[in-house]
Amino acid sequence: MFEAIAFYLFSFLTITMFFIAVTTSQALYALTALAAGMIFISAFFFILGADFLGAIQIVVYSGAVMALYAFGMMFFDTTRDVKEKQGNKFIIVGMGVLAAVLVVVIFAAPIVGDNIVAIYPMIEGAGNTQEVGMVLFTKYLVPFEVAAVMLLVAMIAGIVLAGKKMDLSLTLTSDDKIEEDENNKKVLL
Amino acid sequence: MMEIGLNHYLVLSTILFAIGLIGVMRRKNLLLLFFATEILLNSVNIAFAAISHYYGDLTGQMFAFFVIAIAASEVAVGLGLLIVWHKRHGNIDLETMTSMRG
Amino acid sequence: MEMFLYIALFAPLVGSLFAALFAASPKTLVAGVVPSLLLFISFVASSILLAYVLQTGGTIHVEMMTWMATGNLYIPFGFVVDQVSVTMMMVVTLVSTVVHVYAIGYMDHDKSFNRFFAWLSAFVFSMLILVMSDNFAGLFIGWEGVGLCSWGLIGFWYHKESATWAANEAFIMNRIADLGMLIGIFLVYWNTGTLQYDQAFAVMPSLDTEILTWMGIFLFIGAMGKSAQFPLHTWLADAMEGPTPVSALIHAATMVTAGVYLVVRSNPLYDLIPDVGLFIASLGAFVALFAASMALVNRDMKRIIAYSTLSQLGYMFVAAGLGAYWVALFHLMAHAFFKALLFLGAGNVMHAMHDELDPFKMGGLSKVMKGTFIMMTLASVALAGIFPLAGFFSKDLILEVGFIQHHYIIYSVLLFTAGLTAFYSFRLVALIFHGEERYKLFGIHPHEAYKFMLIAMSPLLILAIVAGAMKMTYFEMVTAVLPATEYHVHSEITYWIMTIGTQLFVIAAIAFAYKKYALSKVDVPDGSSDMEKSFIYKLLYNQYYIPHFYENYFVKPYREMSHAFWKEVDLLLVDATVDGIAKFIYNTGENTRDMQSGNLSTMLKWMVAGTVALLSLAVVFALAVRYLGV
Q1: For chain A, how many structural domains are there in total?
Q2: Which residue out of C600, C602, C603, C605 would a mutagenesis test of the A interface target, given it has the greatest number of A Cβ atoms within 10 Å?
């Protein structure tokens, strides 16, 4: 019973938050709503017994990703309301709903047909984190490493794109040059 | 009603996916478009985790895990590009980004 | 021998194409001389073929190439030179050569000189295909070809509205008749399975008489159009709008005889259906009288000669209808010579009188134009059928045929028409060449035509005089393929009474014409005399009001109907549909243009739309497979 209450409560909250994120005209409200929604989604993961995943959700999504968005927002003028010329509401809503339903129907068809066989079954007794660890570092090792490389690449890309004065390298120029630039700067100022 | 089954989670996932799609189609500000994309990814994660739970299979959680990783890197790169664009053009409104004549 | 066949056939085509190269350029003499030379070569080849056929009695049959070979239908481009076709070839090439040389002089001052020879030689080529072909399809190709060239030549001076109208009338009337001919050809193929003459005629005796009757009737309808039998006759008189050499060649000697040729060629068919033959003969007799009556009062020189042609065509059909095919062909040959000569002489007169056509405005030209006077007089004598010129042998023979077969009505009609023919021919000659010189009132200064034109006309004159002597040679040659009935009146006395009686009757008519028009005073009629006001005169002068009738009851309603069809059906239905399709496609393009506008939001919407479409298709097909077992 608790499960049911929790499910309905969190689902209501999630849907509300995401709805606000999609329809509001203020960027800051959208950001906040999105962050809240992320947290509530982690609640779902905990209900489903995917503890590791829930923790990851909070740390990565609501922590890192939302923080990234917040920093990104600082670059843009957020006091202005986002003016949007609206297209045809019926088409948009209709197509969205239709697409969603179709996607789920297609991918749930095997479930309805009872065709699912577990490849990596859960082991009774072990905690979720242990199980995740066992599967992740044995069967999914290569994707794990590749994901790590990808994160590295993304980080470097982020730095290059957003950073200032990237052409000047402190570690490669000689000490004399640095002294000279410092003096020049003092003279100019 | 009380017994939460897989169907409930799938319905929830559908609703969230629809909300995400509507946001993608509706938003004209690029940043807010990215928010909608995040919603899409999250709805899919819920579906994966739910199926994984009800069939006792860990594959769903693994997939969700990797989706999160990819989403994070995608946000990093996307935001970086957005910042560069903003520095160059001063705004990130979709309507101003059309250079093709229709 | 086949080489001569091909030379005779294709030389005119080469001439035509050569002249066509110059069609848009100003007049150059070589564009007239070369086609004439090539036609002369064709004539020589025809003569060699004639000599061969005469000596050996053999036929030359070639198949140049296959035209259609589909299913059971096999039609080749085949040509045959037998006794009938070699006669026609001789006539056609001889008269064509003479007319070509004459036209070099006649069209001297015309700026479309080159184009004329292109059309004229093309006509000769089509006519040769018509007479030399060995199957009905080739005949039809030639048939249509001569119709087309006739159109081009009648409407040669296309700036004149009356000329273009006459050309269209000729072509359309021919086309109406061609429908009948096509049905006839279809019937032949359907019942005999082949269009080759020899094979089709071999099958025909075993067919049902009713089918044969229909075949004969429909083929004759085609002949009616081409040979201007009633009621499709009005085009022949109007065709005089074309230049005189055209009238001489086409509307005297060759094209209008194509109908007679068809009946002669199909003689195995018409022998099996004598009732249709009787109808043809009766119609021919009627046309002979009908045309002669209209020529009595006409005041247009060329039209008088045109009605004369029409009348003589009636004679030919009488002979063909009564089964005397060789007689019909013989009259065709003789008639070609003297009628062409008459037309060419009239051309000389026209040129001398600056294109004046009313004989009442001429007179006394014998003093100025001696050569033309002699030629036209002798041609008229031949036409009237006076012994010993050519017309006597052919026309009197037809009268005998009618008498012997006990068709006394036809005989008397033809006899009376012979009298009328003599009268109006000499009325024309008397008005033009005798009497006082009325042309001086109109300030015209006539002069004779060029010497070489007269020299070109002379072969026709000679043949008009001597052709009768060739009758026996001709008879022996041509009866190898035609029925060899000899027509002899049973008792000698009857024969002599008939012949002498006919001659006296004709001579009396000639004397009457001379008395009225050469010896008494003739004024230019201006509509005030009693005769002109009489009903009969008006009836004949207006051609029995038949063109008037056709114009009001056929042409006008058809034009109205066409206009209505254009406005209501074509514009509103057909054009609207075609434009509608174009508009639809254009609008589709307009509306999907914003797929490529570069707006990310629009593109995302299209992406979702596409995904929805594909997914729905996937679901639908999966369900169909699952539940319908497709």
Answers
A1: 3
A2: C605
pLDDT at position A81 is 60
The verdict on a CB contact (< 8 Å) between C599 and B27 is no
Q: Is the pLDDT of residue A43 over 90?
A: yes
8 Å CB contact between C141 and C133:
yes
- pLDDT tens digits for C165-174? 999 999 999 9
Rounded CA-CA distance C304/C301 in Å is 5
The answer to whether the Cβ–Cβ distance between B24 and C608 falls below 8 Å is yes
Q: Do C608 and A105 touch (CB under 8 A)?
A: no
Model pLDDT for residues C573-592, shown as the tens digit of each residue: 888 899 999 999 999 998 88
Chain B partners of A14 at a C-beta cutoff of 8 Å? Answer: 12, 16
Residue pair B92/B85 in contact (Cβ under 8 Å)? The answer is yes
Does a structural domain hold residue B1?
no
Average pLDDT (C553-565) is 90
What is the structure's pLDDT at C553?
87
A: neighbours with 3+ CB pairs under 8 Å?
B, C
Place of tokens 């957005």: B82
Considering the domain boundaries, does residue B28 fall inside one?
yes
Q: What is the pLDDT of residue A8?
A: 93
Residues 36-95 of B with CB under 8 A from A: 36, 38-39, 42, 45-47, 49-53, 55-59, 61-62, 64-66, 68-77, 79-84, 86, 92, 95
Q: What is the value of ipTM here, to two decimals? A: 0.90
Say if the Cβ atoms of A96 and B21 lie within 8 Å.
yes
Domain boundaries, position B53: 6-91
* In the block, residue with structure tokens 């000329």: C163
Interatomic CA distance for residues C243 and C171, integer angstroms: 17
Could you tell me the residue range of the domain that residue A156 belongs to? Answer: 140-189
Same domain, A53 and A5: yes
Residue A79 and residue A117 in one domain: no
Nearest to B98 among C597, C604, C608 (CB): C597
Size of interface B-C (CB pairs under 8 A): 34
Q: Does C619 touch chain A if contact means CB atoms closer than 8 Å?
A: yes
pTM: 0.70
Q: Who's near B15: CB < 8 A, 6+ residues apart? A: A15, A100, B43
What is the mean predicted confidence (pLDDT) over C219-247? 87
Q: CB distance from A91 to chain C under 8 Å?
A: yes
**DSSP category for residue C273:** -
Alpha helix segments (H runs only) across C193-273: 197-203, 209-226, 234-238, 244-248, 258-265, 267-272
**A1 shares a domain with A51:** yes
Q: Give the closest residue to C227 by CA, choosing from C147, C301, C299.
A: C147
The DSSP string of B14-83 is HHHHHHHHHHHHH--BHHHHHHHHHHHHHHHHHHHHHHHHHHTBSHHHHHHHHHHHHHHHHHHHHHHHHH
